[in-house]
Amino acid sequence: MSGRANGDALRSWNQTARLFMFLSAAALANTSAVASDITVVSNCPKTGLIPIKFRIDCSHLEDPAARKHCGIFAENQACKVFPTYRKITGIFVERFCLTLSYTLYDRASWPHNTGGGTSSRCRIDQLEEYALRVNAKSAIGPYELHEMLHQYQMADRTLGQLTAFHPLFSSSMLEAEYQLDEGVAYELGTERLKREMRRLQTSLEKKTIGAADRCRIAQAVIEDGLYLQDRNNVYQFYRALARGPEREAVNQMSAMLNSLSGGKVRQFLIAHGCESF
Length: 277
What we know:
Blueprint: H1 3-36, E1 38-44, E2 48-60, H2 64-67, H3 70-89, E3 99-105, E4 117-120, E5 123-127, H4 128-133, H5 146-154, H6 169-179, H7 183-206, H8 211-229, H9 233-243, H10 249-260, H11 266-271
Parallel strand pairs: 2-3, 3-5
Antiparallel strand pairs: 1-2, 4-5
Helix pairs in contact: 3-6, 6-7, 7-8, 8-10, 9-10
């Protein structure tokens, strides 16, 4: 091969190599960008390996400022909210889920027709305003309690049948705030709960609640009242449900509330639409 041919071949090889290096670098940069939108947490700073993996997908968020908070949100859900609900409920979500996945959306990209969050087994879709913004100013940073509680209840034999109606939600979420040292949120939530309880009691007395909803509302009034009397009752709610003999879910809830009230609420529940139990 002539020296000129040699030189042409060398230049061609160098150009090809530079193009390959450029394309490889671009691909690597793109992979890193995509990876930065997905956070996976399987270890926590204080406890090490956790029994379930959390995967938070923020790739649908347009605002870089919102995506910036996804890491701390992921850690809060895995390392603070998840063990707090484990303590409150005594339920093992990890029996059903090896990975719990959150996918966060802007309103413009929200794929569902209603609501700001949906839960199916081991998966949560949620608007970022409820995941990242609601508690953004808290001492621990952004976290959410609502959809995580659905995951816990779906792993329970009784509550899995009822969770769409949000049983035990007010007391469980308030107690979670208390355990997370979110004092201001807890106090504000307690006052809201008192107002809501009075409103529901009035509605029951005036019979302005439809027959289909009356038992559920009566149960909520009893549940809220028991929690306001003693915070420890929320722990007993879950354990009494687990210990009780298996029966139809709504009746199981009525029996649990009646038992924890010392047998004082049976007539109230039956009078407001619950079946005899």
